Amino acid sequence: MxxxxxxxxxxxxxxxxxxxxxxxxxxxxxxxxxxxEKSAEDAGLAEDYGVDGLNEIYDEYGxxxxxxxxxxxxxKDGAEKIQNxxxxxxxxxxxxxxxxxxxxxxxxxxxxxxxxxxLKYIWKDGSWMAVRPSGxxxxxxxxxxxxxxxxxxxxxRLEIIRNEIKSIINx
Length: 171
What we know:
alpha+beta; five-stranded antiparallel sheet
């Protein structure tokens, strides 16, 4: 694809807009991994540059697959289990999964952000996972952002991580 520098910037801005739309859209909230493609269509990016243009961006920068799991743990036992899970996640640190190079614990305060009971695990390849209890419901939420060269590999890796998290939470 031969693009001018201006077209390249427009694509980058359009992709950023698509990511923002995806994060706010029910496609991601419902766990639809096609949220970015749908948002690209909605934003007119696919129309202007076609799916091939989006695939070229994926080829150059990788595929980013975002997903949300929400686990309901009701009652007094549920609230206690959520706190125990957060303590366990905190204690495991970088050993939770192979390849994690950093854990950000927002409960200690990060820059100007308020202290929150949130843990963010960052892999060497830029993928990340965040875990937090809901402040209003008996839930623990896990946010995933998986980076890989292909959509298929990102999907496989997401499923492996999700299955491990499910086994930890449902134990």
